[in-house]
Structure formats: structure tokens, C-alpha cells
Amino acid sequence: MPELVEIETLRRQLSSLILGSQITGVYSPSKAKLRSLSSYPTLIRELRQNRVQKIDRTGKYLIFRLSTEKVLISHLGMSGRWLVLGETKPKHSHLVVEFQGFSLVYVDPRRFGQLLVARSENEVANGALGPDFLSRFSVNDLYARLIRHRQFVKKVLMDQSVIAGLGNIYADEVLFQAGISPLAHCDKLPLEKVSQIDSCGKKLLKKAISFGGTTLADGGYVDLYGRNGRFQNHLMVHAREGEPCLVCGETVQKGKISARSYYFCSNCQKENF
Ligand SMILES: [Zn+2]
User: Fold this and answer.
1) pLDDT of 219 above 80
2) What is the pLDDT of residue 53?
3) Catalytic residue check, 45
4) Once rounded to an integer, what is the mean pLDDT over residues 43-56?
5) Local confidence band at 30 (pLDDT 50, 70, 90 cut-offs)
6) Which CATH architecture fits 139-264?
7) Would you state the pLDDT for residue 31?
8) How many CB atoms within 10 Å of residue 202?
9) Which CATH fold topology does 4-127 show?
10) Among the options 11, 57, 60, 145, which is catalytic?
11) Is 154 a catalytic residue?
12) Which listed residue (2, 46, 57, 173) is catalytic?
């Protein structure tokens, strides 16, 4: 599933391609509907002849600001992709947006993605989204948000209502950088460790953005031009079960919390503080 890093990569690519260009046509080649969207006739009516003036991102959501002052909210779900349309339309294409000289296509085989025209971005996640991980917030605020949860820190970091943007891959990597086991209890974290989640996490996410995000062996994520990310070559623990830790040489371990995998180094990452 694409996370903050991959969505930010897409946001930058989309911004440099479409800002200010007029949408000349919109249509849906799909009979299958996404699980969460404005109806296709509404999407087509709201987008046609419109321009995208700015594209913002909060957490894993893209917010296309339209010249009508409405917004198109896009969440890629498990398998959504925005692609520059080539010669042939990919399978599971749900929406084609045409500009002068090129078209974009939204593709989503599993259909968990979301496309919604709304009056404002306050409608993102029904207003229940925590601050974006890369936005400015105080460490005290993050500390207060985390310690009220008596759960494993890995699980809480992926809770978008606590802090927005991290999924399975980067939650593992942030915790490695901060020296915290995924099984540490959130309510037992000292302020100093929360500060490391904030500072190491931001540094890590910015680096991953500069590498164009992560494409794992399942080929899940590709960018606007269908290219893989390059940060998978820099992951420290995620998807490295059985391999040596790149810092200490201890074997990287894998476990599961509520059916989601986690990866960590038991030597570099502590459970109790
Ligand atoms: Zn280690």
C-alpha cells in the first residue's frame, strides 16, 4: 500500500505535469465502481473544463484544488495508481482525465481507492485525520497523542487518526531509526524516545522521498510514469527477515500484530525504557 512517501512523490510529479492545464475531457472506462467515490457522472461534471490549481497532500491523501474552489480527494487504497496514459489502457482503469496532448488514468485492481469531489479538504477521512507526519507539530503534542494508547507502538504509528502518513513499511523503518521495538508499549515511551520518532522519522521520510519511494518485490507501487521507486535498496529491516542487521549483524526478525507483519532487530531496538 502506498504511504506518505509514495503519495508525496506522486504529488510532485503530478504538480509539475498538470498545474494550470485545462481538463479537456473526462470519462470512466470502468463498469466496476470504486468502493468509495462520488458517482462517475458527478466526477465527470465536476472535472470537465476545470483546471487543477494546486495539489496538496495530507497523510496518504492527495487533494487536487480545482478552479471552481472544490477539491478532488484521492486515496489510493491498497492498489490505486495514477499513471500517464500510454498507448493502451491498463486493466482496471476507472477514470481517464484528458489534457491537451496527454491523459492521466486512475487504475485500481482491488478498488479500495477513493475519489471524491468535496467542498473542502476538511471532508478528508471525515475530519478524523491526525497531523501529517512531515508537518510541524511539537514533540509534546506527539507525545500526548501516543501515550494515551495502551497498545504496541507499531500499531499506533499506523493509526491515521493519531498521526497521518505511515503504513507498514515506514512504521518499521522509523522504529528502527529511533531504536524502539515494534512491541514497545506506547504508554510507556519516554518523551526522549518520542522525540526520536519525530526527528529520525522526518529525516527518514525525506530521504525516502528523494529516492522516489519503495517498490517491494510484489511490484505494488509505481510512480506516475510507471517506474519503480528506489528506496527498497535502503530499507534497514522491512522485508529483510533472516538477513543480518545492517548496523549490528544480528538476524532481522519478523512477527505479526493483528495480521500485519513487523520486522525488527532485537539488538538495536528496545522494548522497555
Ligand atoms: Zn541491529
Assistant:
1) no
2) 97
3) no
4) 95
5) confident
6) Orthogonal Bundle (1.10)
7) 79
8) 14
9) N-terminal domain of MutM-like DNA repair proteins (3.20.190)
10) 60
11) no
12) 2
